[in-house]
Amino acid sequence: MLPLTPLKLLxxxxxxxxxxAHWRERYGxxxxxxxxxxxxxHCVSVGExxxxxxxxxxxxxxxxxxxxxxxxxxxxGRATSEQLFGDKVSRVYLPYDVPFAVARFLKHFKxxxxxxxxxxxxxxxxxACKQRNIPLVLANARLSxxxxxxxxxLGKVLTEGLQSLxxxxxxxxxxxxxLKRLGATEISITGNIKFxxxxxxxxxxxxxxxxxxxxxxxxxxxxxxxxxxxxxLIIEAVSKANIPNLxxxxxxxxxxxxxxxxxxxxxxxxxxxxxxxxxxEAANLNNVNYLLGDSMGEMFTYxxxxxxxxxxxxxxxxGGQNLIEACSMGKPVLVGPHTFNFEEAAQMAVIxxxxxxxxxxxxxxxxxxxxxxxxxxxxxxSDASLQFSERNRGATERTLNLLKPYI
Length: 407
Description:
- The protein is of the alpha/beta class.
- The protein contains 18 helices and 14 strands.
- It has a seven-stranded parallel β-sheet with strand order 3-2-1-4-5-6-7, sandwiched between helices. Strands 10-11-9-8-12-13-14 form a seven-stranded parallel β-sheet, with helices on both faces.
- The longest helix has 17 residues, at 375-391.
């Protein structure tokens, strides 16, 4: 398949030009200077990069004489790393999982330790690290039942790969149990680092400023991290709910879909404004029903400015997105039936009263009507969200303790 990878990059580059940049790194060719011993974290895309923020901050603080290297697979992951950490860390693309490219990567950076975030299992990479005696740890590990069934088909390759990891820090007992069934031996329960992700100091202020621009007295609903096909369903649910003067913010998960969602709103004749144009528009937004969140790195700001949030990727079978950020901002949360990527966190949030699960468009519409008609229920869910978020913190420290013996 390797000869086809340039075509893949060119194809993706048609919609997202960033895929054409730094392409040599994907084959193991690097110009990044190595000036200190390297601690390496692999954060495949946006979610893993944001989740790693508390751990990156802790490592920078605890190991100032080391160089922190973040590797990514997607341009949006790389861009998120630049926004969050600037020049405090080095960043490159992880090469394709073929022996010669992996060997070049390890030869160039000679990492003291490698940390794979969540479920990034690349078997040539794992074998090469074992061969060079580079400790490799799987941190914040999660594995849904669906993914476990898929991995099980790999048989001996998977078992050897898991057993070649020096240690695994699983998010939950269920994740640990699935990993053990597949052959993992060295495994601990460290919790979910995403609970330790704190909003940036200015996020609440920016959220309040955004809310004033939108209209402080207006009810505001946020559909966060939406995936392909969900926006049309959300628009339908909002229309059926028919909440007076409601403003709906839609923030697509992937930036290459911003224009697609804008075209959808235009076709449906819904007056909307892009977030990136908001500061240039007149202050009176009474005639605007939708805001398209076409900015990067502002999710906490969007959460701070809304009254209730739906977490995308869950109304259609994409597996859901992270609801923890919304809870940490004290927002009532709605999720769809498909949350297998975050099943444990979603179930815990529902049990805690921080989240409600909806099954379809009609259910979402009814729940929106109920929430926006009942201030007391919204406040109760808001309080439950904050308590739920606070109770589950501490995974960063446990993960740091897991890594210490190898650094």
